[in-house]
Structure formats: C-alpha cells, structure tokens
Amino acid sequence: MITPTYMDYSSTTPVDPRVAKKMAKYLTMEGDFGNAASRSHYYGWQAEKAVDEARSQVADLVGADPREIVWTSGATESNNLAIKGIANFYHKRGKHIITLKTEHKAVLDTCRQLEREGFEVTYLDPMANGLLDIQEFKSTIREDTILASFMHVNNEIGVIQDLKTIGEICRENKVFFHVDAAQSVGKIEIDLASLPVDLMSFSAHKIYGPKGMGALYVSRKPRVRLEAQMHGGGHERGMRSGTLATHQIVGMGEAFAIAKAEMKEESERTLRLRQRLYDGFSDMEEVVVNGDLDQRISGNLNISFNYVEGESLMMAISGVAVSSGSACTSASLEPSYVLRALGLSDELAHSSIRFSVGRYTTEKDVDDAITLVREKVEKLRELSPLWDMYKDGIDLNSVQWAAH
Amino acid sequence: MAYGKKVLDHYENPRNVGVLDKDAVNVGTGMVGAPACGDVMRLQIQVNDDGVIEEAKFKTYGCGSAIASSSLLTEWVKGKTLDEASQIKNTEIVDELELPPVKIHCSVLAEDAIKAAITDLKNKAS
Q1: Which residues of A touch B61 (CB under 8 A)?
Q2: How would residue B102 be classed by pLDDT, with cut points 50, 70 and 90?
C-alpha cells in the first residue's frame, strides 16, 4: 500500500526522530526511568534533572521563567486548567468570561461547563477575516469580567491574533488573559517576558513532540493563581498532581529546543510551500481562501472550491491526507462552526479543505497535490448540478431549496 | 471512516452522469436537497411512448455516498415503468451500497429525487 502524502500538520505532526531517540532513554532499566518526585535516591534525581532541563527548554522558546511552566497532558488539559482554575479561584471577583466563537472546543466546552456552574460567558463573533474585533472586545468588558480567552492561532484557518493589543486591554481592565497557543508555539515568535499574557496553553504533538503532553504557562509577575483541577500528590506546585511522565516531558523539551533553533528557517520554508500551493490554485474559478491570508501561520491554507463538496473532494484526493470543514459524516450535517462564524455561506463552508504543510513536506508533495486536486475538482464540478447552475448564471441564493 | 467497495465503485465510475432536456415533454426532472445541507441531487428520467423509463441522468453535489446513491438509482430505474420506479425504497439503496447509519440520509435524498422527477413528468402530462 502506498501511504498518502501527509498534509494535515495542523492536526498533528510525526515525532521528530531526534525527539524519539531522546525519549527512549527515559523508559527502561538502563535508562533514567525514575520518579522525579523521589528525592531520596539517584534514580529520582536523574529524572528530576531531565524534567528540569525540559522545563527550561520549553520556557526558553517562549521567553518564560522555568518556574512558570506547569506540565499537563496536552493543550486540552491546559485550557481546562487555565479557564476553570481562574474561574474557581477568582469567582468572588466576578463571574464573566469573554471568548471567541472560533476558539477550539477545549475552550468553548470548558466555558459551557462554567455556564452550567453559574458563570456568564460572552462568545464574540470574529470579523470576516477571522480576527478579533478589538473595539467590540473592549466594549464587552464589564466590571465583573475576570477572564478573556483567545487563541493565538486558529487551528482551522491559521489566522494570528494580536496578543499584545488584546493583552494590554486586559491589563488596563484587570482581566486575566489566557491564550491557547497550541497552533502557534514553535512556529511564530512568542516572548512572554514582554507580552501581557497571564496564561498560555501549549501542546507537544503539534510541533514534532509526543501526543499526550502539554504545558500551561502561569505568570509569576503579575502573579496568577489557579485552583487545581487534578488533586493528589501536590506536584507542579500544587497546580497539577500526578507523577511526571519523564519520557513525554523530555520529548516535549527536545521538540521545543529544536523549534527554537530551527523555527526561523522552517517557517520561511513552509511559507514558500504554502505560497506554491496557493499559486497552484489561484487561477482556478471560484476558489476562496478562508481567513486572512497575511495575518496567517505559514503552513496553513484553508481554501474552498466552490460547488464541490469537501468530503467528496477529500475522498477523490485520497492520495493526500487533508481535512475538511464539511461535516457530512456528522449526524448534524452542520459544516465547520469556525467557517460559519466568519460569515461564510454553508455551501462554501461545505466546500472547504484545510491543507497544512510542515517539516517533512517537499516541493514535489505540493506539486503532486496541486495536480491531483485540480483534476478532481474539475471532475466533481462536472458532476455538480450547482456548477451547472453557476455556469448558467443562476444565483443559488434565489433558488427555493428543499432543506432536509 | 472508510468507504465500502460499492460506494467507491460508483463514486469513481459514476453511471449516467449528464443532463436531459428539462423542457421536453417526456423528461421529468427532480432536484432535491440544499447546498446548505451539503448535498443537492438532480435526477432526470426520460420515458418512451409505453411509459417506460428509457434514459436516466444525474448530477450530484455531495459526499461520496450521495453521489453513489444517485448513480445507483439511475441504473435501477432504467427499463422500469413509472409505477415500478416510484416503489424503490431508500432502504434498498442502503442495503445495496452498505451505507453506514450516518449516510442513510443520502439514500433518502435519492428516493426523494426519483419521486420528484416522476411528479414533474406527471405534472407535464396533465
């Protein structure tokens, strides 16, 4: 079997072999398998040393102090800990939270849960390009607003929010600012020493580290306190109990160190690949890029081929592994809520494909994908009654559809 | 989610793709679904003087299962009378294509499409 070309790096990435090699040293009897919390013997000390080194590697990439890094099982847990942790600790100060409709489900569903617990959440609409409307955000802040949570880079459309501006507004209004940076860390520069951010979520597996591993940055100056969500042995300064997964932590540290060393070169390379991909489609009829093309992470191209349904296009280009904003597989038939929040028509949302390129993508991969996609889009448009109607000059919005 | 063999076959080699003259008196057109729902089917049938479907064409915007359901239906209705064609049930399509539960709506749409085409034809005759 010929495996498909991987172009879904925003979903996850393979572990870099350099990372995997290092991780393997922290598992077996011959390696440093100890429990970092064992303070009384060599094995524990070795594990603790490895964990400390990884903590510094993670902190280094984002301009933080190692003491500001809390290990978690991934960005989902980090988001939960940050949002619930703030809400539970500071609820006497206020019960209002602000976020964006295009956030990851790990943020949105956490907010929904807090609503059930008596908090009030405002879900802001993004602008049509996916970015936060700063003025609207300002006017939404109330006396009882305790937390704002906005992602740095959107997972579907790759747009980059202006953390500095948002953070300054939060500071002025004494609102804690949490950022989900799972899609941005290691791809664009983050300097928490200068950014007014209180909490930031990280994931290892989006930048060539292992799955099941993440971290939460918790600012020390100004000091941010959290109510723990996982209780036990009081690890991670009481914020997140549980024996530390040394091999996972070491893997995350190594992945972050590699990202720091290679980020600049890599993002230039992936930007060239993304541009090449976009150029390959830009002369086609009825092709729309979703989300701002300039304020966007280098590896992401979310694009709609109008009048072709996304899932059938994915099926047609099975030689390339991508994802789609179409949701024909789900019972609801609702297309991507992110694309809908941008104000995209349902059919454009149903027609979207997310390409995300990364460390191991080659120019040939991109060229092959262009050829394949162009051929299949043409084939599917030949099959599409909507394409016929478009060609006949019929406005699809004027048609009385029988919704089902 | 992996697709079944029969869905893939119809998807890769769709039968009877095309357009018939929608204004002809012996052609019935059924268009069902909506772009907002992610699938639109247009099914057309042409009958001979004996009321037997001699030609069927389709075009579908939708997932692989929607395309396969309409492709299969065009094969089935050819040679059938309108009465026979109107009795095709979506469950027969589900069984033939081995559609999973999340794709049953595709077969429902195909059944709706043939019924709409027959209605269109009958309206023209009366």
Answers
A1: 307-309, 383-387
A2: confident
